[in-house]
Amino acid sequence: MGVEIRVEGLTKSFGRQTIWQDVSLTLPAGEVSVLLGPSGTGKSVFLKTLVGLLKPDRGHIWIGDRDLPYLPEAQLYDTRKLFGVLFQDGALFGSMNLFDNIAFPLREHTKKSESEVKRIVMEKMDMVGLLGAEGKLPGEISGGMKKRAGLARALVLDPEILLVDEPDSGLDPVRTAYLNQLIVDLNAQIGATFLIVTHDINTARTVPDNIGLLFRRELVMFGPREMLLSSEEPVVRQFLNARRVGPIGMSEEKDVSELEAEAKMGLEVGKLPPIPPQLMPSDGRVRAGQHAPGAWCAAHGVTPPPGSFIDDVGRNWVEEWPRYVASMSPSPAAGGQAAPGAPRPGGGTY
Fold it and tell me: Which of 32, 150, 183, 300 supports an S-S bond with 194, CB 3.0-4.6 Å?
Protein backbone atom coordinates (compact mmCIF):
# COMPACT_ATOMS: atom_id res chain seq x y z
CA MET A 1 0.00 0.00 0.00
CA GLY A 2 1.21 3.50 -0.75
CA VAL A 3 2.48 6.03 1.74
CA GLU A 4 1.76 9.75 2.03
CA ILE A 5 4.49 12.23 1.07
CA ARG A 6 4.45 15.68 2.69
CA VAL A 7 6.62 18.34 1.06
CA GLU A 8 7.13 21.53 3.08
CA GLY A 9 8.88 24.70 1.88
CA LEU A 10 11.12 22.88 -0.58
CA THR A 11 13.61 25.08 -2.46
CA LYS A 12 16.25 24.10 -5.00
CA SER A 13 18.86 26.20 -6.82
CA PHE A 14 21.80 25.52 -9.11
CA GLY A 15 24.28 28.28 -8.41
CA ARG A 16 22.43 31.60 -8.68
CA GLN A 17 19.53 30.08 -10.61
CA THR A 18 16.53 29.24 -8.45
CA ILE A 19 14.68 26.27 -9.95
CA TRP A 20 11.67 26.46 -7.62
CA GLN A 21 11.12 27.78 -4.11
CA ASP A 22 8.89 27.17 -1.10
CA VAL A 23 7.05 24.25 -2.71
CA SER A 24 4.58 22.64 -0.32
CA LEU A 25 2.14 19.85 -1.16
CA THR A 26 0.88 16.52 0.08
CA LEU A 27 0.75 13.47 -2.18
CA PRO A 28 -2.09 11.39 -0.72
CA ALA A 29 -1.29 7.75 -0.01
CA GLY A 30 -2.38 5.38 -2.75
CA GLU A 31 -3.49 8.10 -5.19
CA VAL A 32 -2.22 9.15 -8.61
CA SER A 33 -0.91 12.71 -8.84
CA VAL A 34 0.36 14.55 -11.92
CA LEU A 35 2.87 17.41 -12.03
CA LEU A 36 2.56 19.78 -14.98
CA GLY A 37 4.51 22.84 -16.07
CA PRO A 38 6.20 24.46 -19.05
CA SER A 39 9.55 23.08 -20.15
CA GLY A 40 12.40 24.16 -17.89
CA THR A 41 10.35 24.61 -14.72
CA GLY A 42 12.18 21.86 -12.84
CA LYS A 43 9.67 19.01 -12.87
CA SER A 44 12.31 16.30 -13.34
CA VAL A 45 14.50 18.03 -10.74
CA PHE A 46 11.56 17.78 -8.35
CA LEU A 47 11.33 14.01 -8.91
CA LYS A 48 15.06 13.57 -8.35
CA THR A 49 14.81 15.61 -5.14
CA LEU A 50 11.88 13.52 -3.90
CA VAL A 51 13.85 10.31 -4.26
CA GLY A 52 16.98 11.79 -2.66
CA LEU A 53 19.17 11.93 -5.79
CA LEU A 54 19.41 15.72 -5.36
CA LYS A 55 19.54 17.58 -2.05
CA PRO A 56 17.33 20.66 -1.66
CA ASP A 57 18.68 23.99 -0.43
CA ARG A 58 16.03 23.97 2.28
CA GLY A 59 12.71 22.40 3.13
CA HIS A 60 11.41 19.00 4.13
CA ILE A 61 10.19 15.80 2.47
CA TRP A 62 8.35 13.76 5.06
CA ILE A 63 7.83 10.07 4.33
CA GLY A 64 6.16 8.83 7.46
CA ASP A 65 8.33 10.17 10.28
CA ARG A 66 11.46 10.36 8.11
CA ASP A 67 12.63 13.72 6.73
CA LEU A 68 14.39 12.45 3.62
CA PRO A 69 16.87 15.32 2.92
CA TYR A 70 18.32 15.05 6.43
CA LEU A 71 18.60 11.28 6.79
CA PRO A 72 21.95 9.61 7.46
CA GLU A 73 23.25 7.69 4.46
CA ALA A 74 22.15 4.28 5.77
CA GLN A 75 18.58 5.44 6.47
CA LEU A 76 18.43 7.25 3.12
CA TYR A 77 19.43 4.05 1.34
CA ASP A 78 16.77 2.13 3.23
CA THR A 79 14.07 4.75 2.54
CA ARG A 80 14.85 4.76 -1.18
CA LYS A 81 13.67 1.15 -1.29
CA LEU A 82 10.14 2.53 -0.92
CA PHE A 83 10.52 4.15 -4.36
CA GLY A 84 10.28 2.82 -7.86
CA VAL A 85 11.28 5.16 -10.69
CA LEU A 86 10.39 5.04 -14.37
CA PHE A 87 12.86 7.33 -16.11
CA GLN A 88 11.92 9.32 -19.20
CA ASP A 89 13.87 7.13 -21.64
CA GLY A 90 13.34 3.88 -19.76
CA ALA A 91 17.06 3.85 -18.82
CA LEU A 92 17.48 0.22 -19.89
CA PHE A 93 20.93 -1.35 -20.21
CA GLY A 94 21.44 -1.85 -23.94
CA SER A 95 23.62 -4.94 -23.54
CA MET A 96 21.12 -6.78 -21.32
CA ASN A 97 17.95 -8.52 -22.45
CA LEU A 98 14.66 -7.45 -20.89
CA PHE A 99 14.71 -10.23 -18.29
CA ASP A 100 18.12 -9.19 -16.98
CA ASN A 101 17.20 -5.50 -17.08
CA ILE A 102 14.14 -6.10 -14.96
CA ALA A 103 15.98 -8.51 -12.64
CA PHE A 104 18.81 -6.04 -12.04
CA PRO A 105 17.38 -4.34 -8.88
CA LEU A 106 16.61 -7.72 -7.31
CA ARG A 107 20.12 -9.01 -7.91
CA GLU A 108 21.67 -5.72 -6.79
CA HIS A 109 19.63 -5.02 -3.65
CA THR A 110 18.38 -8.38 -2.38
CA LYS A 111 19.73 -11.85 -1.67
CA LYS A 112 16.91 -13.71 -3.37
CA SER A 113 17.62 -16.98 -5.14
CA GLU A 114 17.58 -17.07 -8.94
CA SER A 115 14.37 -19.09 -8.86
CA GLU A 116 12.71 -16.39 -6.75
CA VAL A 117 14.13 -13.67 -9.01
CA LYS A 118 12.67 -15.45 -12.03
CA ARG A 119 9.25 -15.76 -10.37
CA ILE A 120 9.13 -12.04 -9.51
CA VAL A 121 10.44 -10.88 -12.90
CA MET A 122 7.93 -12.99 -14.82
CA GLU A 123 5.13 -11.77 -12.56
CA LYS A 124 6.00 -8.11 -13.24
CA MET A 125 6.45 -8.74 -16.97
CA ASP A 126 3.00 -10.29 -16.99
CA MET A 127 1.59 -7.23 -15.21
CA VAL A 128 2.87 -4.91 -17.96
CA GLY A 129 2.07 -7.23 -20.86
CA LEU A 130 5.62 -8.28 -21.78
CA LEU A 131 5.51 -12.06 -21.34
CA GLY A 132 7.32 -13.69 -24.21
CA ALA A 133 9.68 -10.76 -24.76
CA GLU A 134 12.11 -11.50 -21.94
CA GLY A 135 14.93 -12.53 -24.32
CA LYS A 136 14.77 -9.38 -26.46
CA LEU A 137 17.35 -6.59 -26.26
CA PRO A 138 16.21 -2.95 -25.79
CA GLY A 139 17.36 -2.17 -29.34
CA GLU A 140 14.96 -4.78 -30.73
CA ILE A 141 11.74 -3.42 -29.23
CA SER A 142 9.48 -0.40 -29.67
CA GLY A 143 9.43 2.71 -27.52
CA GLY A 144 6.22 1.61 -25.85
CA MET A 145 7.72 -1.75 -24.92
CA LYS A 146 10.78 0.01 -23.48
CA LYS A 147 8.49 2.11 -21.28
CA ARG A 148 6.69 -1.01 -20.07
CA ALA A 149 9.99 -2.78 -19.41
CA GLY A 150 11.16 0.23 -17.39
CA LEU A 151 7.89 0.14 -15.50
CA ALA A 152 8.30 -3.57 -14.75
CA ARG A 153 11.82 -2.89 -13.42
CA ALA A 154 10.43 -0.09 -11.22
CA LEU A 155 7.94 -2.59 -9.76
CA VAL A 156 10.21 -5.53 -8.88
CA LEU A 157 11.01 -4.30 -5.35
CA ASP A 158 7.28 -3.77 -4.64
CA PRO A 159 7.58 -0.01 -4.12
CA GLU A 160 5.10 1.98 -2.07
CA ILE A 161 5.85 5.11 -4.14
CA LEU A 162 6.20 5.17 -7.93
CA LEU A 163 7.72 8.20 -9.68
CA VAL A 164 7.11 8.35 -13.43
CA ASP A 165 9.00 10.89 -15.56
CA GLU A 166 7.20 11.75 -18.82
CA PRO A 167 5.84 8.29 -19.65
CA ASP A 168 4.33 9.66 -22.89
CA SER A 169 7.57 11.07 -24.31
CA GLY A 170 8.34 9.53 -27.70
CA LEU A 171 5.05 7.62 -27.84
CA ASP A 172 2.19 8.04 -30.28
CA PRO A 173 -1.29 8.86 -28.86
CA VAL A 174 -2.50 5.25 -29.03
CA ARG A 175 0.50 3.85 -27.12
CA THR A 176 0.16 6.70 -24.64
CA ALA A 177 -3.48 5.72 -24.07
CA TYR A 178 -2.47 2.09 -23.45
CA LEU A 179 0.26 3.18 -21.03
CA ASN A 180 -2.15 5.48 -19.18
CA GLN A 181 -4.60 2.61 -18.70
CA LEU A 182 -1.75 0.40 -17.49
CA ILE A 183 -0.76 3.02 -14.89
CA VAL A 184 -4.35 3.30 -13.62
CA ASP A 185 -4.67 -0.50 -13.47
CA LEU A 186 -1.36 -0.85 -11.62
CA ASN A 187 -2.39 1.80 -9.11
CA ALA A 188 -5.61 -0.11 -8.41
CA GLN A 189 -3.75 -3.40 -8.19
CA ILE A 190 -0.78 -2.50 -5.97
CA GLY A 191 -2.12 0.63 -4.21
CA ALA A 192 1.15 2.56 -4.51
CA THR A 193 1.36 6.35 -4.42
CA PHE A 194 2.04 7.59 -7.96
CA LEU A 195 3.55 10.91 -9.09
CA ILE A 196 3.70 11.44 -12.85
CA VAL A 197 5.51 14.27 -14.63
CA THR A 198 3.97 14.87 -18.05
CA HIS A 199 3.33 17.43 -20.79
CA ASP A 200 0.47 15.39 -22.24
CA ILE A 201 -2.79 17.27 -21.65
CA ASN A 202 -5.01 14.23 -22.20
CA THR A 203 -3.02 12.30 -19.59
CA ALA A 204 -3.37 15.19 -17.14
CA ARG A 205 -7.11 15.48 -17.74
CA THR A 206 -8.03 11.79 -17.49
CA VAL A 207 -5.48 9.86 -15.38
CA PRO A 208 -4.76 11.56 -12.02
CA ASP A 209 -6.65 12.07 -8.81
CA ASN A 210 -4.62 15.24 -8.15
CA ILE A 211 -2.79 17.77 -10.34
CA GLY A 212 -0.08 20.36 -9.64
CA LEU A 213 1.39 23.05 -11.90
CA LEU A 214 4.90 24.54 -11.62
CA PHE A 215 5.48 28.02 -13.10
CA ARG A 216 7.69 31.03 -12.31
CA ARG A 217 9.73 28.98 -9.83
CA GLU A 218 6.63 28.25 -7.76
CA LEU A 219 3.92 25.65 -7.38
CA VAL A 220 0.97 27.63 -8.77
CA MET A 221 -1.69 25.13 -7.68
CA PHE A 222 -2.01 21.62 -6.35
CA GLY A 223 -5.22 19.81 -5.57
CA PRO A 224 -7.90 17.39 -6.77
CA ARG A 225 -8.12 16.96 -10.54
CA GLU A 226 -11.50 18.69 -10.72
CA MET A 227 -10.12 21.80 -9.02
CA LEU A 228 -7.43 22.47 -11.64
CA LEU A 229 -9.55 21.43 -14.60
CA SER A 230 -12.08 24.11 -13.67
CA SER A 231 -9.52 26.74 -12.57
CA GLU A 232 -9.75 30.43 -13.45
CA GLU A 233 -5.97 30.88 -13.07
CA PRO A 234 -4.69 32.27 -16.44
CA VAL A 235 -1.54 30.13 -16.45
CA VAL A 236 -3.55 26.97 -15.76
CA ARG A 237 -6.05 27.77 -18.51
CA GLN A 238 -3.29 28.67 -20.97
CA PHE A 239 -1.37 25.47 -20.33
CA LEU A 240 -4.39 23.16 -20.46
CA ASN A 241 -5.77 24.91 -23.55
CA ALA A 242 -2.34 24.87 -25.28
CA ARG A 243 -2.70 28.55 -26.22
CA ARG A 244 -0.02 31.13 -27.04
CA VAL A 245 -2.08 33.82 -25.28
CA GLY A 246 -1.31 34.05 -21.56
CA PRO A 247 1.57 34.43 -19.10
CA ILE A 248 3.71 31.58 -20.50
CA GLY A 249 6.16 32.69 -23.20
CA MET A 250 8.48 30.84 -25.54
CA SER A 251 11.44 30.82 -23.16
CA GLU A 252 9.78 31.62 -19.82
CA GLU A 253 7.09 33.99 -18.54
CA LYS A 254 6.04 36.99 -20.63
CA ASP A 255 6.79 40.50 -19.43
CA VAL A 256 4.11 43.04 -18.48
CA SER A 257 4.20 44.83 -21.85
CA GLU A 258 3.45 41.61 -23.74
CA LEU A 259 0.50 40.82 -21.48
CA GLU A 260 -0.82 44.37 -21.78
CA ALA A 261 -0.60 44.18 -25.59
CA GLU A 262 -2.58 40.94 -25.59
CA ALA A 263 -5.23 42.53 -23.36
CA LYS A 264 -5.54 45.58 -25.67
CA MET A 265 -6.06 43.27 -28.64
CA GLY A 266 -8.84 41.50 -26.75
CA LEU A 267 -7.00 38.18 -26.71
CA GLU A 268 -7.95 35.72 -23.97
CA VAL A 269 -6.67 32.34 -22.88
CA GLY A 270 -10.21 30.97 -23.13
CA LYS A 271 -12.34 28.87 -20.86
CA LEU A 272 -11.37 25.31 -20.12
CA PRO A 273 -13.35 22.60 -21.92
CA PRO A 274 -15.70 20.32 -19.95
CA ILE A 275 -13.99 17.94 -17.56
CA PRO A 276 -13.67 14.50 -19.19
CA PRO A 277 -14.43 11.23 -17.40
CA GLN A 278 -11.58 10.02 -15.23
CA LEU A 279 -9.89 6.88 -16.48
CA MET A 280 -11.03 3.90 -14.38
CA PRO A 281 -9.35 0.52 -13.74
CA SER A 282 -10.06 -2.11 -16.38
CA ASP A 283 -11.48 -4.51 -13.81
CA GLY A 284 -14.11 -2.01 -12.63
CA ARG A 285 -12.57 -1.26 -9.23
CA VAL A 286 -13.17 2.05 -7.51
CA ARG A 287 -10.04 4.20 -7.47
CA ALA A 288 -8.46 5.07 -4.13
CA GLY A 289 -8.48 8.76 -5.00
CA GLN A 290 -12.00 8.88 -6.41
CA HIS A 291 -13.58 11.79 -4.55
CA ALA A 292 -17.31 11.82 -3.96
CA PRO A 293 -18.59 15.42 -4.15
CA GLY A 294 -19.76 15.42 -0.54
CA ALA A 295 -16.40 14.19 0.76
CA TRP A 296 -14.46 16.70 -1.35
CA CYS A 297 -16.72 19.55 -0.20
CA ALA A 298 -16.35 18.58 3.46
CA ALA A 299 -12.57 18.31 3.13
CA HIS A 300 -12.10 21.71 1.46
CA GLY A 301 -15.02 23.77 2.70
CA VAL A 302 -16.22 24.78 -0.77
CA THR A 303 -18.66 23.57 -3.38
CA PRO A 304 -16.91 20.86 -5.41
CA PRO A 305 -16.16 21.84 -9.01
CA PRO A 306 -17.54 19.78 -11.89
CA GLY A 307 -16.00 16.35 -12.10
CA SER A 308 -16.41 12.90 -13.51
CA PHE A 309 -16.77 10.80 -10.41
CA ILE A 310 -19.41 8.50 -8.98
CA ASP A 311 -20.68 9.34 -5.51
CA ASP A 312 -21.50 6.94 -2.70
CA VAL A 313 -25.04 6.34 -3.95
CA GLY A 314 -23.98 5.70 -7.54
CA ARG A 315 -24.79 9.05 -9.18
CA ASN A 316 -22.68 10.00 -12.17
CA TRP A 317 -21.66 13.61 -11.56
CA VAL A 318 -20.74 14.23 -15.19
CA GLU A 319 -24.49 14.07 -15.79
CA GLU A 320 -25.62 15.45 -12.44
CA TRP A 321 -23.37 18.51 -12.34
CA PRO A 322 -25.44 20.92 -14.54
CA ARG A 323 -28.58 20.20 -12.49
CA TYR A 324 -26.57 20.56 -9.28
CA VAL A 325 -25.20 23.99 -10.30
CA ALA A 326 -28.66 25.19 -11.32
CA SER A 327 -30.05 24.32 -7.90
CA MET A 328 -27.45 26.09 -5.78
CA SER A 329 -26.42 29.64 -4.95
CA PRO A 330 -23.28 31.13 -6.57
CA SER A 331 -19.98 29.77 -5.30
CA PRO A 332 -16.32 29.91 -6.39
CA ALA A 333 -16.80 26.73 -8.45
CA ALA A 334 -19.91 28.14 -10.16
CA GLY A 335 -18.40 31.55 -10.84
CA GLY A 336 -19.54 33.28 -7.65
CA GLN A 337 -17.67 34.44 -4.58
CA ALA A 338 -17.02 32.63 -1.33
CA ALA A 339 -17.37 34.37 1.99
CA PRO A 340 -14.17 36.13 3.15
CA GLY A 341 -12.04 33.75 5.15
CA ALA A 342 -13.58 30.63 3.61
CA PRO A 343 -11.07 27.87 2.90
CA ARG A 344 -9.62 27.85 -0.63
CA PRO A 345 -9.08 24.46 -2.32
CA GLY A 346 -5.47 23.39 -1.93
CA GLY A 347 -4.80 25.70 1.02
CA GLY A 348 -5.23 29.31 2.13
CA THR A 349 -8.41 31.37 2.30
CA TYR A 350 -10.45 33.66 0.07
Answer: 32
Opening angle at CA 110, ends 107 and 111, nearest 5: 90
65 CB-side CA count, 13 A: 0
| H/E run at residue 85 | strand 83-86
Looking at residue 305, the DSSP 8-state letter turns out to be P
DSSP letters spanning 133-152: -TT--GGGS-HHHHHHHHHH
Question: Taking a C-beta distance cutoff of 8 angstroms, is the pair 106, 153 a contact?
Answer: no
Bridge partners, residue 165, by sequence: 197
Q: Are 3 and 160 in contact (CB under 8 A)?
A: yes
Domains and CATH numbers, the chain: 5-225 (3.40.50.300), 232-264 (no CATH), 293-334 (no CATH)
pTM: 0.74
CA distance 160 to 148: 18
pLDDT of residue 167: 84
Cα angle 57, 52, 11 (rounded to 5 degrees) comes to 25
Task: Report d(CA 142, CA 145) in Å as an integer.
Answer: 5
Q: Is residue 174 a contact partner of residue 139, using CB atoms and an 8 Å limit?
A: no
* pLDDT (0 to 100) of residue 281: 80
pLDDT value for 316: 45
Residues of the chain with pLDDT below 70 are 89-90, 245-277, 284-286, 288-350
Beta bridge pairs of residue 27: 5
Where does residue 14 rank: exposed (0-12), middle (13-18), buried (19+ CB within 10 A)?
A: exposed
How crowded is residue 253: how many other Cβ atoms within 10 Å of its Cβ?
15
Rounded-to-integer distance, Cα 202 and Cα 206, Å: 6
